[in-house]
Structure formats: C-alpha cells, structure tokens
Specification:
The structure holds two protein chains of two kinds.
Chain A (H helix, E strand, L loop, with lengths): L1 H31 L6 H18 L4 H24 L7 H23 L14 E4 L2 E4 H23 L1 H11 L1 H6 L4 H27 L5 H15 L5 H21 L4 H16 L14
Helix pairs in contact in A: 1-5, 1-6, 1-8, 1-9, 1-10, 2-3, 2-4, 2-8, 2-9, 3-8, 5-6, 5-8, 6-8, 9-10, 9-11, 10-11
Chain B lengths: L8 H4 L6 H20 L2 H26 L7 H17 L4 H23 L4 H21 L1 H4 L5 E2 L3 E3 L2 E3 L4 H22 L2 H11 L1 H6 L4 H27 L1 E2 L6 H14 L4 H35 L4 H15 L4 H16 L3 H14 L23
The chains are: A mainly alpha, B mainly alpha.
Main location (chain A): membrane
Pfam families (chain A): BPD_transp_2
Protein name (chain A): Amino acid/amide ABC transporter membrane protein 1 (HAAT family)
C-alpha cells in the first residue's frame, strides 16, 4: 500500500510536468488552432535560460526564474512573428511542419551553446523531504505539483474571466469575425505565444531538479505531453492538467506493476484507446459537423 | 508554347500527355541505366538510398498528398517490412516470396491502422500515427524471440533466382530502380483510376466526396493499406541495403525525414517524392563536403581579397570549428523545413513549374498564379 501511494505521488508529480507542457499546447491551440510541436523544446530552452541566469551568472533563484520567464516570453513572441504568423490561415499540416522544423533548430542550437551534458539547477526545493508517517515526499516533486495547480487555476481564470482571454477564444473560433469585432488578432496570437513560452519555462525550471536539463529533454517529454493534451480534450485547460496527471500516474504504475517495456508504451496505448472511443477527450466539447 | 487540345476524357488521363514526356523520361531512364558505369561506388550507394526513399515518398504521397491523411508513422511500416524480410530469410524463404509477404503483411497492418484513423483528422491523426510508430518501435525492442531486441538482426545477402546480389552491386541498384519505377507507374495508374479520383476528392472535401456517393471509410482504409504496402516493399530493400537492422534505426526521426522528403519535393505531384529523396539523401555528402572543403575555400577567398596569411589561417580554423559543430545537421534540417514551409510551400517541383512557366509566358508571368488562398474563417474544430 505504501509502495502504491509512493508511486502515485511520483506519478502525479511527473504528470504535472506533462500537464504543464500540455497546457502550452492547449493555450496555443485554443487561441490559434495551431499545434505547436516545438512546445517541449521551448521548455528545454527555458530550462537552459534559467540555468544561465542561476547557475552561471549566480543570480538569486527567484530573480533568475523571473528573468528566464520574461526572456522566454519575448522569445515566444519572436518565434510567432518569424515562423507562425506568415503561415496562419494555411492548412494545419504546414504549421505542424514549421513547428517541427523550429523544434529541430532549437534542439541543435541549444546543444551547440550549452553542450550535451546534463545540467542541474540548484533550487530551494532541491533538498529536503516531507515525512507523513512512513510516507516520504521530496520537496522538488511537491513544488511541481503546487506550481502546476496554481498556474492551471490562473490560466483558467484568465481564459474565462478576462477580456483578453475572451478575445483569444473568439479568435480561435473565427479569426475573421474576431477581427471584424475589433479584436487585434495578430497581437492576441503574439501574446498567446508569449504566455505559452512562459508556461513552458515554468515547466522547464521546475523539472530541472527532477530530470535535469539537456538538449533532448524537450523532445522526450513533449511526446509524452501529447497523450496528456489529447486525453484532456485538446482545447481544455483543466483537461490538460488532468490528462497529464492521468498519463503520469499510468506511466509510473505501469513501470512498477507491469513487466519492463510497458512503462514507455502505456501512455500511447491509452492515447490510442481514447482516440478510438472518445476522440474529443475527457473534457472536450462535442461539436456537430457543419457542411 | 504548346497547347494541348483535349477532345475526350481519354486525352485527359493519358500517362504521357505529349511526345516530349516520352523523350525526356526515356533519356532519364537511359541515364539511370548507365549510371553504374559512370558514377563512383559511393554515389551509387547514395543513388540506391534515393530509390528507396523515393519509393517511401511515393507511398507517403498517396496517403498524405492525395488522400490528405497526414502520417508521422511511416518509419514503423518500413520497420515491419524490413523485419518481416529478415525473419523469413532465416527460414530460407526465397526473395520473391518474402518480398511479397512483407508488402502484404505491412499492407494488412496499414489497413488495421487505417480503421481507427477513420474517425480522426488533422492533428489527432498525426498524434495517433506517432503513437503507433512509438509502440511498434518498443515492440521491436522487446519481442526478442523474433526481432532479437536491441541487438538487432543481420540480413543475409540477397539471392535472386540462385544468383547472389551483393548490396553494392549494380544488380541491386537495378532492382531498387525497378521497384521505384514500377511503384511510380503503378501509382500513376492508380491515381487516374476511380480509386485515385476518390482519394483526391476525399482530400479536397470529405463532405463533398461523401455526398457524391464515395464510401469515404473504405477509400481511407484502402489508401492506408496501399501506402503501407509500398513502404513495406521499400523496407525489404532498405534491410538488404543496410545488411543490419535494429529498432533504433526506425525512430520518429526517420518518419519525420520521410515527411520532409515530400514536403521539400512538393506534395502535389509524384515528381516531388523523387526530388525530395534526392535532396534528403544528398544532404549528408554535402555536409561532409562542407566540413572538409569549405574552410579551405573560404580562407582562399579571404586571401584573394587581401587578407594576410595569418588571418586566412584564423578564418580557416574558425570555419572548420563551426562546420564540425555537433548539432549542425539538425539545425540545417530545421532551417530548411521552416524556409520551405514559409517560402516554397509547393516544394522543389513547384519551383521547377514556376521556372518553366516563367519562360513559357516570358514577359507575362505573374506570381499570383501559384498563390495559395488563406482561410481565416472556419475553425478546424468545426470542420
């Protein structure tokens, strides 16, 4: 039983990281109908920025964190301006390919700049554990869970309660109509990319003590975040986090109870099953097809 | 300028619309047939890879280019073909039999992937095919009694009708070329048949296709099966060419390479698959060339512009250091993909058509001829 709870908590922590990356997918998808295959690589880059500020320049953890988030938000806007904006309105396939290309580029550039070693960021949560009876919980994992919950709640409120959030939902439904209603669609898209890059950075920094930062971390985790986003229904913010947690728990349970090899495929088997039975996901909207 | 005057439907679907086609493709085939006597063995080996990649490219074009179903899982189909060949070969099954068996098995698996894909479009389909590829990769690594797991499998030299065909012999090249040409001709015939027209109709509008009486589900599954089967055939040749296969060869990276093949070549014509394959296969020798010769050349240019020998040497070592950076290939891949999507969405073949039209219409060419329309109105979710 203790094993089970231990696995559950580490699964939830891992799942929260997937959830954070999936949040990035969902944000961009919700606002622009674009799926950003470079989301994991934005996370990796955010981690490297934070490493530069904290590990190399010796800044305070929180200042470095904030600096990395700000820098990545700007980078997200830049990426949107250069890669995505010229092809908005073209079929999704082009945009998917463009973001795959962006991901390739970021991975190799990061490998050139920061090398191929695993890097580690010293955080206030790196050491120390919380003991509840016989249960041992590491602070770094708890910090991931807490941060995910806070970010998810903030983004949910942002999307559903603020004017800017409403503008984003409107431009996702119909860019032209949104533009006629006075919404500056280009700026909205740009802001959404900034937010999603910032969220990715949070994921990267929180993840740093758990898996370390290396140039391929984004690809590995990004691929795991897809099942999370699909499971939650591609357009739902709480769905992304719930999906992420489910995938994380399934993965860690499969790693513990099933023979070797199941751990890596379990998320994808779940994904295919969900796509077969309920393609709109757990929290997705069911939309009727119009001719 | 040539005007094609068509009087009936048969004229419209001719394989060779006019005699120019026969002449130019005849010359191309003749050149390809004498290639082994002209090119170095390294280039011949690359040419074999071009044939294999182009075959997969054609398969992917049927599915992605003409039926509109994106797939990022074709490395898995290639792997299934390759492993079927390697496994059957252990039991001394003759080449023609396991070649066909690999195609048939991959086709059946492709159809099985096609069924769940019926309900999926766009991004969901891409994610589903990625998942399928990752699962196949894991199965190859774990099913050790058949695939030998991560140790990989050795593939024996091909023997065709009692004659051994080494993987770097001209005969093997002719075999790959024959498979490619047969695939292309077969696909051309498929595309001008009712089946091919149904594929294109589904790509352009599923709803319209259905209302015209096309069984969308059936044709989507057919498209998956045909595409997978061709990829399976290519997989057999791939296995023989490499003579050793292991699961880490058939990763997502390879699937993405196949997509790049058709993206760079152009997704609207079979020419695209061949041009893209040439591009992808030749990028490696080109990078090696850059690494070896570029530093010297750039330093030489600097020297002719009056740089002192010390500066020239400095430049040479800097360029050499840059060219041998680890991730350079990935970065170049990334830049190429982005540039093609942004500036040349019709691919290399599209560029060729533009150049051709420019000269045909000489002072009257206008850019807008090839402009694609942007759609800001409908959300894909409601489509």
């Amino acid at each position: 039983m203790l094993d089970f709870v231990q696995q559950l908590v580490s699964g939830v922590a891992l799942g929260c990281v997937y959830g954070l990356i999936a949040l990035g997918f969902v944000l961009v998808y919700k606002a622009t109908e674009v799926v950003n295959f470079a989301q994991g690589d934005l996370m990796m880059l955010g981690g490297f920025f934070a490493f530069t500020f904290i590990g190399m320049m010796g800044l305070n953890y929180w200042i470095g964190f904030a600096g990395a988030v700000a820098a990545m938000a700007l980078f997200g806007m830049l990426a949107e301006r250069v890669v995505v904006r010229p092809i908005l309105g073209y079929p999704q396939f082009s945009i998917i390919m463009a973001t795959i290309g962006l991901g390739y580029f970021l991975r190799s550039i990061a490998g050139m700049i920061w090398g191929t070693d695993d890097l580690k960021i010293e955080t206030p949560f790196s050491q120390g554990v919380l003991r509840i009876g016989a249960l041992v919980l590491a602070y770094d994992k708890l910090s991931v869970i807490a941060a995910t919950m806070i970010l998810c709640a903030l983004l949910y409120l942002f999307f559903n309660k603020t004017t800017l959030g409403t503008a984003m939902r409107a431009s996702s439904e119909n860019m032209l109509a949104a533009y006629y209603m006075g919404i500056p669609v280009k700026r909205v898209v740009s802001i959404v990319w900034a937010i999603s890059a910032a969220v990715a950075t949070c994921a990267g920094v929180l993840l740093a003590p758990i898996t370390f930062i290396h140039s391929n971390v984004g690809l590995v985790l990004g691929l795991k975040a897809f099942p999370a986003a699909v499971l939650g229904g591609f357009g739902s913010i709480p769905g992304a986090v719930v999906g992420g947690v489910l995938i994380g728990v399934i993965e860690s349970m499969a790693g513990f109870y099933l023979p070797e090899g199941w751990k890596d495929v379990a998320p994808y088997i779940v994904l295919l099953t969900v796509l077969l039975l309920k393609p709109e996901g757990l929290f997705g909207l069911h939309v009727r097809k119009k001719v | 300028m040539r005007f094609l005057f068509k009087t009936d439907y048969e004229d419209d679907i001719k394989l060779f619309p006019h005699s120019g086609y026969v002449v130019s493709y005849g010359i191309l085939i003749a050149l390809l047939l004498v290639a082994p006597y002209l090119l170095s063995s390294y280039l011949m080996s690359q040419l074999v890879f071009v044939c294999i990649y182009a075959t997969v490219g054609v398969a992917l074009l049927i599915l992605t280019g003409f039926t509109g179903q994106a797939s990022l899982g074709h490395a898995a189909f290639l792997a299934i073909g390759a492993y079927t060949a390697a496994y059957l070969q252990k039991y001394n099954v003759p080449f023609p039999v396991y070649f066909l068996a690999a195609g048939v098995l991959t086709g059946i698996i492709g159809a099985m992937v096609g069924f769940p894909a019926l309900r999926l479009t766009g991004i969901y389909l891409v994610i589903a095919t990625i998942s399928f590829a990752l699962i196949v990769e894991e199965i190859l690594a774990r099913w050790e009694s058949v695939t030998h797991g991560n140790e990989g499998m050795r593939v024996k030299t091909l023997s065709l009708l009692g004659v051994t065909v080494p993987r770097d012999s001209p005969t093997f090249y002719y075999l790959c070329l024959a498979v490619l040409v047969l695939t292309i001709v077969g696909t051309l015939n498929l595309l001008r048949s009712p089946t091919g027209r149904a594929f294109v109709a589904i790509r352009d509008s599923e709803t319209a296709a259905r209302s015209m009486g096309i069984n969308v589900a059936l044709y989507k599954v057919k498209s998956f099966a045909i595409s997978a089967a061709i990829t399976g055939f290519a997989g057999v040749l791939f296995a023989h060419k490499l003579s050793f296969i292991s699961p880490e060869m058939f990763t997502l990276q390879l699937s993405i390479e196949f997509i790049i093949v058709i993206l760079i070549g152009g997704t609207f014509s079979l020419h695209g698959a061949v041009l893209g394959a040439i591009f992808i296969v030749m990028i490696d020798p080109f990078l090696t060339y850059l690494k070896d010769d570029m530093p010297g050349i750039i330093a030489g240019i600097a020297a002719t512009f009056g740089a002192s020998s010390a500066t020239a040497g400095n430049i040479q070592s800097k360029v050499a250091a840059f060219a041998s950076l680890n991730g350079l290939k990935g970065a170049i891949y990334g830049i190429i993909i982005v540039l093609f999507v942004l500036f040349e969405p019709l691919g290399l073949y599209g560029r060729w058509l533009k150049i051709k039209l420019f000269f045909q219409l000489f002072p009257l060419y206008k850019r807008a001829t090839f402009k694609r329309q942007k759609i800001y109105v409908k959300s894909e979710r409601n489509r």
